[in-house]
Amino acid sequence: MEFENLLINTKNNITTISINRPKNLNALNIKTLEEIANAINLSVENDKTKCIIITGAGDKAFIAGADIKEFMDYSSNNAYTFSETGNKLLFEVIENSPKPIIAMINGYALGGGLELAMACHIRVASDDSRMGLPEVSLGIIPGYGGTKRLPLLVGKGRAMEMIITGRMINAEEAKSFGLINYMVKKETLIDFCNELANKIILNSPNAIKYAIKSLNSNYKEGFDNFSDEILNFSKCFDSDDFKEGTSAFIEKRKPRFK
Ligand code: DAK
Questions:
Q1: What are 136-191's pLDDT values in tens digits?
Q2: Best substitution site from 5, 19, 23, 24 to test ligand 1's pocket, by max atoms within 8 Å of Cβ?
Q3: Domain count, the chain
Q4: Claim: this prediction has a pTM higher than 0.85
Q5: What is the DSSP secondary structure assignment for residue 1, as one 8-state letter?
C-alpha cells in the first residue's frame, strides 16, 4: 500500500512507521491520521511484524500536534465527529493493538502528537524532546484522549497543571513525571528502541496480546468511551477564543483572549 505522509520499514520483525511531514513538524492532518490507522492495521495483520515503532521524520519533531491549519475552520459538529471517529479509528486501535507499539519521541510531541504517544504501550524520548498539551492556548481542550490518559500516567495534579498552563516540559521532567519510560541521548534513540523491541519480541506474542488486553481493561471501567472529553472539546469550537487562538498561531502572534 502506498502512503503519502508515512514512511514504513519492516526489518527483523520490527515495523517502523515514520510520520513524514517534516516541513509542518509532522502535524497530524486527517489524511495522516487515516494513513497511520491503515499502517497499524496492516502491521497487525502482517505475520512479519511483531513490534511496531512510531516516530517522526526529520530531526526536530515527533508530532507537533494536530494540523492547526486544517482544524481552524471546524464547527463544533465537525469537531465532535472527528474527535469521536479519530478516537475510535486510531487512538483506541493503537492502545488496544495486540502487537506492542513503542512511541519513539524524537523532538516536539505536542497536543495530538503527545496524545498519540500516550496511546502507545511504551514511550522512549530523546534528551532534547519537549512535550506538552498546549490546546488551551488555542481556545480548545485536548480532543484525542489527553484529559484521560495524561492523569493515568502522571497523576491528576501534574496533568491538571500541564493542561491548564499548556506548558511544554523537557524529557528529564517527563521522565521524572512517569510520562515517558526512558530518556536517551538523541544519537542512541533508534538503537535503543530497536533493542527494546528485540527484547519484547523474544516473548510469546500470544501472552503479550493478552497482557495488553488485561492491563488495558483495568482502565476501561467508568471511562465512558471518552464521551465527556469529546463533548467538551467540540463545544470549544463555537467560541471566539478558538477563532482568536488559531488565528494568532497562523499570524505568528500571541493570542488576545477576552
Ligand atoms: N499545525 C500546523 N502547522 C504546524 C504545526 C501544527 N500543529 N506546528 C508547526 N507547524 C508549522 C508552522 O506553521 C511552520 O510552518 P511555516 O510557517 O514554515 O509554513 C512550520 O511547521 C515550522 O514551525 P515553526 O516555524 O513554528 O517552528 P519553531 O521551531 O519556531 O517552533 C513549535 C516549533 C513546535 C514550538 C511551534 O511550531 C509550535 O508552537 N507549533 C504548534 C504547537 C501546537 O500548538 N500544536 C497544536 C496543539 S493542539 C481535533 C482533535 C485534536 C486536536 C485538534 C482537533 N479534532 C478531532 C477536530 C488537537 C489539537 C492539538 O494538537
A1: 999 999 999 999 999 999 999 999 999 999 999 999 999 999 999 999 999 999 99
A2: 24
A3: 1
A4: yes
A5: -
